[in-house]
Amino acid sequence: MHCGAVANGRNRRLLLRVVVILIIRFFAEHECFIKEVAKAQPPQHLTQLLSIFTARGKSIVSPGAKQGLLPLAIPLVRMSPGSSIALLRWPTARPSMEMPVVEVQKHGVWFLANNVDQFIHRILVEEDISKPEESSQVIFDAAGEAGKKLYSKGDFARSELMDLDLYLLRKVGLFPDSLERKVIRHIENGDHVSALVAAEFYTKRGNFPGFARPFAFNAKVLLKLGRSLEAKDAARGALKSSWWTLGCRYEEIARIAEWGEEQIVQYKEKVTGEGRQRDISRGKPRAQASYDEAGLLLDLASLEGTWDESRERVAQCYKDAGLNDMANFVLYRD
């Protein structure tokens, strides 16, 4: 019995050592990729996030395994056959700008957190309140010293807020799913004024820069509450942002916006050589015309998830726009 316990202890230590070695190897690969290919600053606690995923039994993937994914994503872990967690590299972001954590799906991305630290913080809160002590400890151990700085076990209980979404929004950061559940609860309680106020706050400038999801959700709320004209305007506003950031299929929002096939036809016409030349002849700088074309190509690719088919053209547009680093990043594959 004693010998078995000793053997089990050795096996656990050996397994832990192997896991640590794998995490270090994966982090080194991701760190090098982010620095050398994506030309960005690697998140300080990316190692801890990868360690948490490993502790949860998820498969860490190579940052260059971008086949079938949005070209602007840096994959971290595969969650299911059609879903990956990734970092998002905005085309014109400063190298020092923190990259948001997103879930990449066939038609685009779903915003998860503004940065890696915020994402780890949320994971620890959820582990603390939903798992038994011995189960959650595995995740807390994986988070290491970084986790201790972000969250201590029992902080949620001590806050006396007694509502996960409220705690996340007040103590951790803004998350789309938490804000959306807050709006839905107001509607279910018959408090439509509060629902409209909360939905409007969701769209506030600076909360989720670059993402269309808040505006798309606001359009759905307005429609549900019988404000069809306002819903149409909100939907059209959402479609002015990148379609792959809608957090849902394009068709859902296009119906509310009362957009037909002609809008897609117009987009397809704009990404022809004639369309670009027309913009230039009207005074748009050549570099801006190329950059805008890359955005249109990504929007069109999001309709069917045909990212790989548009990759080379998107890269060429970034190159023509003077964004050589982005062009190389988009083209990179394992």
Helix coverage percent of residues?
55-70%
- The largest beta-sheet arranges its strands as 1-2-3-4-5
Q: What is the helix tally? A: 16
Q: Round the mean pLDDT to the nearest integer and report it.
A: 90
Q: What's the β-strand tally?
A: 5
What order do the helices and strands follow?
HHEEEEEHHHHHHHHHHHHHH
Major beta-sheet overview: 5 strands, antiparallel
Q: Topology, please?
A:
Blueprint: H1 2-36, H2 46-55, E1 59-60, E2 73-80, E3 83-88, E4 101-105, E5 108-113, H3 116-130, H4 133-150, H5 155-159, H6 164-172, H7 176-188, H8 192-202, H9 213-224, H10 228-238, H11 250-257, H12 261-270, H13 273-281, H14 286-304, H15 307-320, H16 324-331
Antiparallel strand pairs: 1-2, 2-3, 3-4, 4-5
Organism: Brassica cretica (Mustard)
Keywords: Signal
Protein name: Cyclin delta-3
